[in-house]
Amino acid sequence: NAGVTQTPKFQVLKTGQSMTLQCAQDMNHEYMSWYRQDPGMGLRLIHYSVGAGITDQGEVPNGYNVSRSTTEDFPLRLLSAAPSQTSVYFCASSYSGHMNTEAFFGQGTRLTVV
Amino acid sequence: KQEVTQIPAALSVPEGENLVLNCSFTDSAIYNLQWFRQDPGKGLTSLLLIQSSQREQTSGRLNASLDKSSGRSTLYIAASQPGDSATYLCAVRPAADAGNNRKLIWGLGTSLAVNP
């Protein structure tokens, strides 16, 4: 099982550049989300989706866009990268229910904006 | 506001020791609590999920307990091995979420080093 797959694993961007972080899952999970992990701050929710065609904002959505055209894929777009977006990004998926909602995470994308 | 705290922040033990990692949360209204392992530069691996109605879960040498009323969970690792060296994170899923964001609230983790 591939689980949750993120690409790329590492990326360096210049300020103002745009890019898309890819995330795909093969578990038929309805719920997908993006987190960023920063030292001393823990993981914070950026955007999430409860199913194809439905997305919403999390705690720190500014500077990021998402779309969910299929159940499997949930890309995260940085429209104009800023040094404050230097972070490790994790994509996660789970079933949509509240109780048995074990979250599965990808390997992460380490992004540096210079 | 739900807050999750993990103590200690770092722990170093000799191989073979049994150890306990602690996680506390401020609001007992949770759906579940999940323990993860993170290796340096790697992703997050789910270790154990405890539903709010459960008291403990076991997987191999790992045992996680949950005392929802006191806002505490412990991860017990038996007979620790150097391969257990990693950062251990706990996360709770609040039951009082607005909407459907189902977000996890995270602790900062305990960095564990098991020395041969």
Approximate shape of chain B: globular
Q: Per DSSP, what share of the residues of chain B sits in E-state strands of 2 or more residues?
A: over 45%
Number of helices of chain B: 0
User: What is the N-to-C order of secondary-structure elements of chain B (H for helix, E for strand)?
Assistant: EEEEEEEEEEE
Q: How many DSSP E strands of chain B?
A: 11
Strand content of chain A: over 45%
How many strands, what sense, and barrel or not for the largest sheet of chain A?
A: 7 strands, mixed
* Residues in helices of chain A, as a percent range: under 10%
SSE class of chain A = mainly beta
Give the CA-CA distance, first to last residue of chain B: 41 Å
What is the arithmetic mean of pLDDT of chain A?
93
Give the mean pLDDT of chain B. 92
Oligomer: heterodimer
Low-confidence stretches of chain B: none
Radius of gyration of chain A: 13 Å
What structural class do the secondary elements of chain B suggest? mainly beta
Helix content of chain B: under 10%
Write structural notes for this entry.
The complex is a heterodimer of chains A (about 110) and B (about 120). Chain A is an all-beta fold. Chain A is built from no helices and eleven strands. In chain A, strands 2, 4, 5, 6, 9, 10 and 11 form a seven-stranded mixed β-sheet that branches. Chain A has a four-stranded antiparallel β-sheet with strand order 1-3-8-7, with no helix packed on it. With about 120 residues, chain B is an all-beta fold. Helices cover about 0% and strands about 55% of the residues of chain B. In chain B, strand 4 (about 30-40) and strand 5 form a beta hairpin. Chain B is globular and about 45 Å long. The termini of chain B are far apart. The model of chain B has no long low-confidence stretch (mean pLDDT about 90). The interface of A and B includes residues 41, 90, 94, 101 and 105 of A.
